[in-house]
Amino acid sequence: MPDTQPQGLPTIRTIAMPADTNPAGDIFGGWLMSQMDLAAGSVAALTARGRSATIAVEGMKFHRPVKVGDEVSLYAEIVSIGRTSMRINVEAWRRQRDSETTQKVTEATFTFVALDDEGGARPVIDQG
Ligand SMILES: CC(C)(COP(=O)(O)OP(=O)(O)OC[C@H]1O[C@@H](n2cnc3c(N)ncnc32)[C@H](O)[C@@H]1OP(=O)(O)O)[C@@H](O)C(=O)NCCC(=O)NCCS
To answer: Is residue 82 in contact with ligand 1, taking CB distance under 6 Å?
Structure first.
């Protein structure tokens, strides 16, 4: 059964380039994780209306490889908001550049903490 692609616009859409490969020539998992962190960070900053930082990543799963030239779309959405933290689910989907078929490649739940000017945790102000 195919995965269901999230509705709406992705938070980030990018192209996997040769510079992002591992020594075997496939896309490096760390590159994909950084894209996911960027997407979650964008949602966190908007939700917290300011600075925030990753404190944890749970359930990171690599379902399928990403190939050079793939269009990679990152979908990030808030799952829950705590006092100072935000849990954000992120899915990455690939589309081979010459095909309309899309596949989910990774997913994880990122926890971000809203930060004050000194880098300490501060309450999240959800202005929804
Ligand atoms: C973010 C930071 C300031 C928080 O410090 P802290 O005040 O000691 O954090 P706390 O223990 O009070 O936890 C803050 C929130 O994170 C949550 N949290 C803490 N550890 C967690 C974990 N392992 N998983 C999920 N949530 C966690 C807490 O439950 C709390 O949430 P809440 O206020 O909504 O209830 C500090 O951990 C830090 O600077 N970390 C480094 C962040 C960073 O540099 N990230 C980039 C990595 S390269």
So the answer is: yes
- Is residue 111 within 6 Å of ligand 1 at its C-beta? yes
Domains of the chain: which residue ranges? 12-114
Number of Cβ within a 10 Å radius of residue 109: 16
12-114: CATH topology: Thiol Ester Dehydrase; Chain A (3.10.129)
Contact indicator for 87, 44 with CB cutoff of 8 Å: no
Tell me the pLDDT tens digit for each residue of 66-102: 999 999 999 999 999 999 999 999 999 999 999 999 9
Output the CA–CA distances (angstroms, integers) from residue 127 to 21, 46, 59, 87, in the order listed: 39, 9, 28, 16
| Global confidence as pTM | 0.94
For ligand 1, mutation pick of 47, 51, 52, 55 (most atoms within 8 Å of CB) = 55
- Convert 85-120 into a string of H (helix), E (strand) and C (coil): EEEEEEEEEEECCCCCCEEEEEEEEEEEEEECCCCC
Residue 109 corresponds to which tokens in the numbers above? Answer: 């739940």
